Amino acid sequence: METILKGEENTICFFDDVLIYSNSDDEHEQHLESSMRKIVEAGHMLNREKCKFKQSEIELLGHVINAEGIRPDKKKVDAILNMSVFINVTELRRSLGIMNFLGRFLPNLSSVLKPVTELLEKDKAWNWGQPQTLAFSKAKELLTAAPTLAYFDLTKPTTVSADASSYGIGGVLLQQHGEKMKPVAFCSRTLTSTEQGYAQIEKECLAAVWACEKFERYLIGLEKFTLETDHKPLIPLINTKDLDETPIRCQRMLMRLMRFSLTASYSPGKTLVVADALSRSPQSPVQEGREETSEDRADVATLLAEDVEAHVDAVQSSWPVSDKRLDEIAALSQQDPVVKAALHYTANGWPRYVTDVEPALKDYYAFRGEFSIHRGLLVRGVRIVIPQVLREEMLNRIHEGHLGITKCRERAKSTVWWPGINENIKQRVLACQHCEEKQPSQRSEPLMTTELPDRPFQMVAADLCDFKGQSYLVLIDYYSRYLEIAHLPRETSEVVIGRMKNIFAHHGIPDVVVTDNGSQFTSTEFQNFAAAWKFTHSTSSPYFPQSNGEAERAVKEAKKILAQEDPFLALLSHRATPTTPTGTSPAELALGRKMRTTLPTLASNLIPKTVRRDAIKARDEQAKLRNKSDHDRRHGTETIPPLIPGDTLLQKLDHEKSWGKPATVLRQCAPRSYEIRSERGQYRRNRRHLRLSSRQSPVPETPSRRDADQPGLSSLEPPPTPGSPRRPPAAPNPGEQPSTPVIKTRSGRTVRPPSRFEE
């Protein structure tokens, strides 16, 4: 019959039963005529008494079908209602088979039959008693009130609603009919003893997968349908997360969902009434009739063996530990009260509210949807949750190879986890002595510009240079860039002071003289000279010539001039040439007039003229801002946080390979210059050469000497601004007594620094 009527519209055959259905009388007559003609042409005769035409309701295969939907055949229901008490498992299994046939109509059948289906378990003694009698009677009542199911329509929005309880899972297939969602089919079943040990998210995942597979004949081929669940953590696992980021057992289940085109959505439990009731009233399939065996599970697993095993092997390969080590972690997890409690909640379900869990578990609660149990281990995704006693060891293993904070975190991200692991890794890396010593040099700080003075030779910079075996004093004015070069027969303080006196006699005594920390400038003679001539002597940071940039640039210009055939003529040209920042020559700014050179010029050009200082300052400021912007961009600068007295730090000069020489901050000379104390003594360093350390300071509070490069004088760099952020000073050691540093000269004479430089 199926062969004869193959291709006929609106015609269904089941062996010799033929069902022809239509939406109207006219269509029905056409469908009926076409089908009957094919039957006659095939040489068959129909029994008139067995044919029914134009019926609004029919009975077919144990179902009653009409315009409203499908409901169970009353004859099947009566057969169950007439059943009496059963005397063995065989009779019970046969009767439950009939009930299961009608299970699609009965969302609550399984919960009612739970006492009965328990008798089907393997090795369960037969004991039909009062609970079973009451349960079977209740099931008969449900059959008499079975609902009518809607027809499945491919064009209507489709939803699968699934839920899981502690002992069962259930689902319902719904479709939109007008403004209401009507059921198409129900399903439910009890969980096996193995499945009852799943984490709650795994049970919910199992419910979703099983419901979709139960309604597979409706769902396969749909362009899209919705999967409803009341377990919010399951939504990202189905919709967005990569498979290897999900709990291990869920990975195997979610692979079975890949053939469906679905979108998971969240519905609160109170709106998921039917699926929730089904999960709490599971139906034990008659074909089970006993405890699920390993053979049963093996049969199911075989269907997906290759895909599942390949994926699981890939996941487990990311755990570079032996089975023995995993067993050790599992045993220690049982001894850790917090991890043990998390294992319990994962297996039996977490409380609905975070306030219902112990305070120690609140850090775990936010990730409750990601936990699963694997071989006795608590696992978050593919990361093993480590008990407290092993965390120190794991931190050491994570930091093997002395990787940085980011790489250590990435390494842990695929292996182990516990609350606060990222912060623990950060502290471990910061406290690593080897990592501290091998860190690269600190980046350059943003360029600090010097404000243009108000008048010529108000502030000057001086330095020494060697050229072709001869020594020279180079001095430059900050305001005009007027350059002075003086030959030094000897590099002594006495000779340097004499040359400076000669220059000051021509231009006047400056307010500030900036130098490096050369011995000629840090000697007692030079300090006495500064005091007698009433100028302030300021020094740059030792081993950091960039902090005296004006003098360093002047030395470069001086060497170019000295390399000329006639250095004096070259020096004259330098003084008479306008500079880029101001657009005015050094001679005009320093002397108020242009200088006569070998170039012809009008006499009127040599007449002294007044220079507009405000315009000069504006041009100088703009040029310095451009230079600062270019410098900061070219060097990728960043501001280094300031230090405070008492900070423990490590030192590294630019030519050194590693950070070492632990020291302690004594005072801040300027925003980027600090006086420090180490085992070598007391001296000054630039902030770029100092790095904060997590170690305790090993430097004892003992009298110390100053380096030859540290005079203890005022700094070129400006003091910190009042609004700049500062950390609170370190608490002083109660047993520490202030000591006065002692300086010994090369002749052995003992001197003390001025009191203004003491702490």
UniProtKB/TrEMBL annotation:
Domain Reverse transcriptase span(s) in chain numbering: 1-65
Compositionally biased spans, kind Basic residues: 683-692
MF terms in GO: catalytic activity; nucleic acid binding
CDD domains tied to this protein: RNase_HI_RT_Ty3
GO biological process, one term: DNA integration
One Pfam family cited in the UniProt record for this chain: rve
Basic and acidic residues bias spans: 613-637
Region described as Disordered: 613-648, 677-759
SUPFAM superfamilies reported in the protein's UniProt record: DNA/RNA polymerases (SSF56672), Ribonuclease H-like (SSF53098)
Integrase catalytic domain location: 452-616
UniProt cross-references to Gene3D superfamilies, sorted A to Z: 1.10.340.70, 3.30.70.270, Ribonuclease H-like superfamily/Ribonuclease H
Keywords for this protein: Multifunctional enzyme
PROSITE patterns: INTEGRASE, RT_POL
Pro residues: bias regions: 717-732
Matches recorded under PANTHER family: PROTEIN CBG26694, PROTEIN NYNRIN-LIKE
Name this protein carries in UniProt: Transposon Ty3-G Gag-Pol poly
